[in-house]
């Protein structure tokens, strides 16, 4: 059997040992918590860096797209302006061709009218000559 004093000493040793284990557990928990907190901070920093990179990429893509759109708009405007210019040139050419055609038709009408008038004059002249001839032969 164990005496009461030995029992108390053993109890105190056990309690001391339990206290040491508790302290070790608290230290271990704190160190694990600190490690987790440090890792969490590290992950937060990495996440912020990734977020910044993504935002930079998005901004770059937006800027590139805006630039491409503006360039395309400018190109389309230039093409539109060029086509309008060509259209105006074609219209003026068509108007000029119509004017030339009208002048040619007018000249042709005048020539026809002149020829018809000349033929009428010649016909009248021949009629008069025939009448004179007939009158001369009848008399």
UniProtKB/TrEMBL annotation:
Coiled coil: 33-60
Localization per Swiss-Prot or TrEMBL: Membrane; Mitochondrion
UniProt keyword list: Coiled coil, Membrane, Mitochondrion, Transmembrane, Transmembrane helix
Upper taxonomic lineage: Eukaryota, Metazoa, Chordata, Craniata, Vertebrata
Gene Ontology CC entries for this record: mitochondrial inner membrane
Protein name, as recorded: Mitochondrial calcium uniporter regulator 1 isoform X2
Family according to the record: Belongs to the CCDC90 family.
GO terms under biological process: calcium import into the mitochondrion; positive regulation of mitochondrial calcium ion concentration
Native source species: Alligator sinensis
Gene3D superfamilies in alphabetical order: 1.20.5.340
Location (main, coarse): membrane
């Amino acid at each position: 059997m164990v005496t009461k004093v030995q029992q108390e000493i053993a109890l105190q040793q056990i309690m001391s040992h339990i206290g040491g284990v508790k302290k070790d557990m608290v230290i271990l928990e704190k160190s694990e918590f600190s490690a987790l907190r440090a890792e969490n901070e590290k992950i937060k920093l990495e996440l912020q860096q990734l977020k910044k990179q993504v935002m930079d990429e998005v901004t770059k893509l937006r800027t590139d797209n805006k630039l491409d759109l503006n360039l395309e708009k400018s190109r389309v405007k230039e093409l539109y302006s060029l086509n309008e210019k060509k259209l105006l040139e074609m219209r003026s050419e068509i108007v000029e061709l119509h004017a030339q055609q009208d002048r040619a038709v007018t000249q042709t009408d005048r020539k026809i009218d002149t020829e018809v008038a000349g033929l009428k004059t010649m016909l009248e002249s021949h009629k008069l000559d025939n009448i004179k001839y007939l009158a001369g032969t009848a008399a």
